[in-house]
Specification:
The protein is α+β, with helices and mostly antiparallel strands. It has helices spanning about 1-40, 155-170, 235-265, 270-285, 310-320, 350-355; strands at about 45-65, 75, 80, 85-120, 125-155, 175-190, 200-210, 215, 220, 225-235, 270, 290, 300-305, 320-330, 330-340, 340-350, 355-360.
Length: about 350
C-alpha cells in the first residue's frame, strides 16, 4: 500500500534531518578545536617560563651612649631616637633569591654608605659622599632554587653625623641631610633550557637622618622586591598544536562540504512530476495499492485515461483497487485497474509534464 511508501518517504526525510543535525554538531565541535589550536599557535603559544624573584628585609637596633635616663643600652627598631644619644646602629640585611626551576646563580653584593646634604627645598642634592662598608662579596650556586644570605653592618653614627655638620657649618647651610645605607645586589640566574638568563641589579635602602638637634629621628627602610622571567617556546607542544590545527581544519572543511551538499539536497526544487505524484499518493492513499512488478499489459485490453481523476471515477464505479508502480524513479509511474480482461490505466510521465521545477521543499 501507499501507506508504506509514505512512511518510507517520511522516514527518509526524518533521517536526512537527523543526519544534517549530527553533521552540524560535528562541524561546530571540530571547528572549535581548530579555532582553539589557531589561537594557541598565533596568539598564546605554549611557553616554558623561568620565573625568578628576589626579596630583602632590613632590621636594626640602636645602641645608646652612656646616659642617666635609659635603663637599657640598646633600643629596638621602630622607635624615635634622640640623635645626641645614638652611639651606633647595628643594621642587618636579609636577602632571599628564589626561582621556579633549578638554576645556576652567579652574583655579588656590596654595602655602601652615602652621605647627602640637600637644598633648602629638599629637591636637589648639594653634596654627596659615598663610602664602602662591605666590599664586593661574590656568591655562586649550582642547581638551586633558593638562596639567601644575612649581612650585618655596624654604623658609626657620630662619624657620619659630624661629617655632615662640618660641611653644613663650613658653608652656612641649614638644610636637611641624611645617611643612606645601600645593599647593592647584582645577580644572574641561568638554566640550560633557556637561551637568556635572568639578570638583577637591585638595591635595598635604609635612610638615617643626620644633624638633627632638638627633635627625635626615625629610621626608614625601602626593602626590595623584584620579579623577572624569561620564556621560551615549547616546541613539542607547538608542533602538536600545528598538527591538530591542520587536521581539525581539514576535517571541518570536509564536514562543511557534507553539510552544504546535504542541505542543498534537502532543499532542492521538486519537479512537476514529483509534485503530481506526491499529490496523488497523499490524496488517494486509502484506495491505492503499491505493487513491485507490473502485470503483462499485453494480456489485457487497455483503456487509457487522460487524468487520474478519470481513473478514480472508474474505481468508484467498479470498486476495484487502483494499482500503482513507479517503473522509473522520478520519471514514470503507472496507475491502473484490472476488471476482467479490461485494464484501465493512467500514465504519469515526467517527459509529458516537462522539466520545469516549481516548488521548494
Amino acid at each position: 500500500m501507499t501507506i508504506l511508501k509514505n512512511l518510507q518517504n517520511r522516514f527518509a526525510s526524518f533521517h536526512s534531518t537527523i543526519r544534517l543535525i549530527i553533521l552540524l554538531v560535528l562541524f561546530v565541535f571540530v571547528f572549535a578545536i581548530s579555532l582553539n589550536s589557531f589561537v594557541s599557535i598565533f596568539f598564546s603559544p605554549s611557553e616554558y617560563k623561568l620565573v625568578c624573584e628576589e626579596n630583602s628585609n632590613s632590621s636594626y637596633s640602636v645602641k645608646l651612649k652612656q646616659n642617666n635616663f635609659y635603663e637599657t643600652e640598646t633600643l629596638p627598631q621602630g622607635m624615635n631616637y634622640i640623635a645626641s644619644l645614638i652611639d651606633e646602629i647595628d643594621l642587618s640585611f636579609e636577602y632571599l633569591f628564589s626561582s621556579s626551576e633549578l638554576v645556576q646563580l652567579e652574583g655579588e653584593y656590596t654595602i655602601d654608605a652615602i652621605t647627602r646634604v640637600y637644598s633648602d627645598d629638599g629637591k636637589n642634592i648639594l653634596f654627596e659622599k659615598k663610602e664602602n662598608l662591605i666590599e664586593a662579596t661574590p656568591f655562586s650556586k649550582k642547581k638551586m632554587a633558593d638562596y639567601s644570605f644575612l649581612q650585618d653592618v655596624v654604623i658609626d653614627y657620630d662619624h657620619f653625623n659630624e661629617f655632615a655638620k662640618q660641611f653644613k657649618t663650613s658653608y652656612y647651610i641649614t638644610s636637611n641631610s641624611d645617611l643612606t645605607i645601600v645593599l647593592n645586589v647584582k645577580s644572574s640566574a641561568s638554566n640550560k633550557n633557556y637561551k637568556k638568563s635572568v639578570d638583577f641589579d637591585s638595591s635595598s635602602i635604609v635612610t638615617i637622618p643626620l644633624t638633627e638637634r632638638t627633635i627625635n629621628i626615625s629610621i626608614g627602610s625601602d626593602d626590595l622586591h623584584e620579579e623577572r622571567n624569561v620564556s621560551q617556546l615549547n616546541i613539542p607542544v607547538l608542533i602538536g598544536h600545528i598538527l591538530l590545527f591542520l587536521l581539525s581544519f581539514a576535517t571541518a572543511l570536509y564536514l562543511l562540504s557534507k553539510v552544504i551538499r546535504l542541505a542543498l539536497s534537502m532543499m532542492r526544487e521538486k519537479t512537476k512530476y514529483e509534485i503530481q505524484l506526491n499529490r496523488i499518493l497523499k490524496e488517494n492513499d486509502s484506495i491505492i495499492a503499491n505493487v513491485t512488478n507490473n502485470i503483462q499489459f499485453s494480456d489485457y485490453q487497455i483503456v487509457e485515461t487522460d487524468s487520474f481523476e478519470e481513473l478514480r471515477d472508474v474505481h468508484d464505479n467498479l470498486g476495484s483497487p487502483i494499482l500503482y508502480n513507479e517503473i522509473s524513479e522520478g520519471k514514470k509511474a503507472y496507475f491502473y485497474i484490472v476488471h476482467g480482461n479490461i485494464l484501465y490505466r493512467y500514465v504519469l510521465s515526467y517527459d509529458e509534464l516537462g522539466e520545469e521545477q516549481v516548488e521548494v521543499i
